[in-house]
Design brief:
Elements: H1 3-20, H2 25-36, H3 43-50, E1 57-61, H4 67-74, E2 78-83, H5 86-98, E3 109-111, E4 124-130, H6 139-149, E5 150-162, E6 167-168, E7 173-174, H7 181-190, H8 206-213, E8 219-223, H9 224-240, H10 244-254, H11 257-260, E9 266-274
Parallel strand pairs: 1-2, 1-4, 2-3, 4-5
Antiparallel strand pairs: 5-9, 6-7, 8-9
Helix pairs in contact: 1-2, 1-5, 9-10
Length: 277
């Protein structure tokens, strides 16, 4: 095993244990196997490439251990990343050295936070934030900054957990929707789980993100989660000639079973298009 992968597994296990009480090392090994292999990490890029968004200047906020970025850099895409955690940047630098990636790639991984992006206005054609906004200090400030550095005519893709559901994906536990933090702390103590992880989480929801975005006049907002759900309902309704209410129930049972059984979280999946004016 390479030193960088060994380092990644160790850090993932220590963070998982400290913040969320994950004692099973196989979980950190599984995640490390996925994150370390940037050559095969193409799932998130499929949508970006399908709509031609890979052709411009791209920002990944926050870039984590760089898997998404490395895959893009290997394909010569013009991508930059912001990441606040030192150990993740240390891992990235270690990996670049080990795999003999170009040294200039290190300059594309920038230490910083989403609330204060070190870029000029209208700097990027495409910005993606994946499983990040639930961890930041100020969600609205991060969105303001991303909109600021997004070019006119550019796109912003927001993906995060929607806490209007019955599952918490970091603790891997059933949770009440937007559970009161004091109640959540008692719940976790009963389960002998650390409560420190609660301090790293915001109860992000599609509704709260859409409310922040509503203050901007020069953007188009596409709620992909709602769009995909409505398409499934229309498909079931049309195929089986059912009332919409029945179709909605069937979609919940067929497509969203794990969400309603508190085994999986709902997702915020929003695209923002910035106008040219």
């Amino acid at each position: 095993m390479s030193k960088s992968k060994e380092f990644l597994e160790k850090q993932l296990f220590e963070d998982g244990l400290k913040y969320f009480g994950h004692k099973n090392k196989s979980l950190s090994i599984e995640i490390a196997n996925i994150w370390h292999d940037d050559e095969k990490y193409y799932q998130r890029w499929e949508e970006v490439e399908r709509f031609g968004d890979h052709k411009g200047k791209i920002l990944d906020l926050a870039c984590g251990v760089g898997t998404f970025m490395f895959h893009g850099l290997r394909k010569n895409y013009d991508i930059y990343g912001i990441e606040p955690e030192k150990w993740k940047l240390d891992y990235i630098n270690m990996k670049i050295d080990e795999l003999n990636y170009p040294q200039e790639w290190k300059k594309r991984f920038i230490k910083g936070i989403g609330e204060y992006l070190p870029f000029k206005d209208n700097a990027f054609d495409y910005i993606i934030t994946y499983q990040t906004l639930e961890h930041v200090q100020n969600v609205e400030k991060c969105i303001d900054e991303m909109v600021r550095v997004l070019k006119n005519g550019g796109k912003l893709k927001i993906h995060a957990p929607d806490y209007n559901s019955f599952y918490e994906p970091h603790y891997l536990l059933p949770f009440l929707p937007k559970m009161n933090k004091k109640l959540a702390s008692i719940y976790l103590k009963i389960l002998r789980r650390p409560t420190i992880g609660l301090n790293t989480l915001n109860w992000t929801t599609s509704k709260s993100i859409l409310k922040i975005l509503s203050k901007y006049e020069n953007i188009e907002i596409i709620n992909l989660s709602e769009l995909y759900r409505n398409r499934k309902i229309d498909f079931v309704k049309s195929k089986y000639h059912l009332p919409k209410l029945i179709s909605n129930i069937l979609v919940n049972l067929i497509y969203y079973k794990k969400v309603y059984l508190a085994q999986e979280e709902k997702h915020i999946n929003i695209v923002v298009k910035k106008g040219n004016n």
